[in-house]
Amino acid sequence: MTPGPSHPDLQVTAKDIMREYGFEPDFPPAVQQQLAQLRAKPPALAAGGDVRDLRKLQWSSIDNDTSRDLDQVEVAERLTNGEVKVLVGIADVDAFVPKQTPIDQHAAKETTTVYAGVRNFPMLPEDLSTGKTSLLENQDRLSVVIEFVVDEEGHVKSSNVYRALVRNQAQLQYNSLGAWLEGTAAAPAKVEASADLQAQLRLQDQVAQKLKKQRYENGALNLQTDELRPLVLNEQVVDVVNQQKNHATELIEDFMIAANGVVARMLEKVSSLRRVVKQPERWDRIVQLAAGYGEKLPAEPDSKALNDFLIKRKTADPDHFADLSLAVIKLIGPGEYVLERPGDPTPGHFGLAVQDYTHSTAPNRRFPDMVTQRLVKAMLAGRPNPYSDDELSAIAANCTEKENAEKKVEREVSKRLAAAAMEHRIGAAFDAVVTGVTPHGTFVRILRPHVEGLLAQGQQGVDVGDKVRVKLIRTDVQHGYIDFARV
Question: For the segment 158-173, what is each residue's pLDDT rounded down to a tens digit?
């Protein structure tokens, strides 16, 4: 008799956790009916009228190695005065999913795709999000293009938004492209094969680095969050690996922040959704944290001073910078979606050091971006706002609530994935740092891979930030427990 698996089916567990936190991971029958209608009569993929034909431009996408829900493509052009025009093409999901249709109603409730490690729970049916509305390589797709000009100093000078037909010429991945841009690895095959694409990507990288430098000078926070991804072999989690930032991830991050700023400013005269991170409520604790490292921060919240401190700590102690970043992120507090009416004062986004910010660049996987896309298209067509203030306010509240729930789902599943990946390492010793000392226990994070667990033995006399050597003594996949002993 073949023995069963030593731990629960993590896909089933992930689905149960989704329901526990208020998600409905299965699509209702009405969604399938709408999909059948879309297959029978898809929207026309044609240029003309207010839709420009930009398929001949050298568009490319950069995303995770396994991503199929591609929301954006990019291309850049150097102008005669040395400035650079950047075009970001965003998937036109609204063309396939009109407001108040069954797919839209389901997306409005779920609000986000949940990436639960062992499987994804898409906000939109995969026929759309990884198919007809995804900007896949060598496919003609409808898009909303956000265009902006960046000067030599990294300032966004002018901008435009319009509809267009686009074609992704090269679907690229963060890890391989980032290593090439940073000079630590050979070019990916698609990049190696095209001198024009190489030049295009170098130009995009240069512009993105200027945008990032300008944001940091304005006080954007240089934070490091280690994203753990499961390594699955024969349907078993065998390891967890860190997704590190690199020039490719930064390229997309900085282009998207700039593009979202363009859209936010475009919508200033209508009611819209904004993404805000208000000034930290617990700034006094951040000041205390810095004082523990011998640094003095101002009494009032100051993102530039905080970022200077973070950069100094990253240089001084890179091994523990992710832990410091996590502490600062928790003290700043979570972001939220809010209704902004014309003329309302905006609290801006503390972590990004931008006053004008919305979410508009990921409509395949975030509902606020679909809503914003409809606002933009209505404005371009001279139509009235498709949403009332009450609707936008309710959407903002639900999106904030579901985003917080999504983080809890991902954290719960991640704990179980880490336990599954570590169960074959019982008895192994690791370098670790103490990340928490609470009434519930003392917690440590090992440095490679960045997995957290309980210091079940030898916890006396240690404090947050201490470096310790630990041995793995127990894992419990069902509950996501990982226990260490000090050695």
Answer: 999 999 999 999 999 9
